[in-house]
Amino acid sequence: MNFDQLKNDWNKPETEETEILQSMLHIKEAHTPIDKIRKQMKCEFFVQLASLLFIALTPRIFGFPPEIKPVFMAFYAVTCGFCAYYFFKFYVFYKHSYDLSLDTRKNLLWFYYEMKLNIELYKALTYILAFIVLSFAAVYLLMVRGTIFQHILDKVSMIYIILNCFITILIVGLITELWAKFYYGKYVKELKKIIDKLDDE
N or C: fewer beta carbons within 10 Å in the chain? Predict the structure, then answer.
């Protein structure tokens, strides 16, 4: 009888069992960043919804003249349209993450890539909203402050105004990138490390 073979066969199931247990531990570990991401998403959803409702009150707060209110409503409707699309995608991802059993590497990968996609969508929405705000500001200046705005254009070159718009977009972009990195990025990185550990095994 081959005792070496018997010894190898005896040790093999224990090794496999250890590997399975180790994988299960990594998968359980992955739930921590996923739960944190879900909590952040839920919190941000309500903050953004409250912000959108607050923006609806800006004509009353800042005392917009009657002729600018229909223009504001048009810009606000466009903003709501973009936000509604983003909220829908955001909600579908959030809801699906609970329906999906996150106990396999495949499902963890799905969550990881979908989260990255949602972060990119979030950044795109921020840029779109920045352009909408700048467009409304330009229309407001032309309609309400027409003569003053014309006087400014006489004194200051158009290049300077374009440069200011460009710098504003850059600042908004920088804040967006930093916010996404701070708010979601660290948890997404944690999740990626756990997926990499599972890959190594």
Answer: N
DSSP state of 184: I
Please tell me the distance from the alpha carbon of residue 62 to that of residue 23, in angstroms, as a whole number: 57
Q: What is the largest CA-CA distance in the chain?
A: 103
Q: Which two tokens stand for residue 193?
A: 């490390």
Q: Domain-by-domain residue ranges, the chain? A: 3-200
The answer for residues whose C-beta is within 8 angstroms of residue 201's C-beta and 6 or more apart is 19, 22, 23, 26
Name residues whose C-beta falls within 8 Å of residue 111's C-beta, 6 or more positions apart in sequence: 34, 97, 100, 102, 191
Helices 69-99, 3-56: inter-axial angle, 10-degree rounding: 160
Instruction: Please tell me whether the overall predicted TM-score, pTM, comes out greater than 0.85 for this model.
Output: no
How far apart, in whole angstroms, are the C-alpha atoms of residue 46 and residue 142?
34
Q: Is residue 86 predicted with pLDDT exceeding 60?
A: yes
End-to-end CA distance of the chain: give it in Å, rounded: 33
User: How confident is the model at residue 21, as a pLDDT?
Assistant: 45
pLDDT tens per residue across span 55-85: 999 888 888 888 888 889 999 999 999 999 9
What average pLDDT does this structure show over 11-29? 49
Q: What band does 151 get if pLDDT is binned at 50, 70 and 90?
A: low
User: Residue 37's closest CA among 176, 190, 141?
Assistant: 190
- The angle that helices 3-56 and 186-200 make with each other, rounded to 10 degrees, is 160
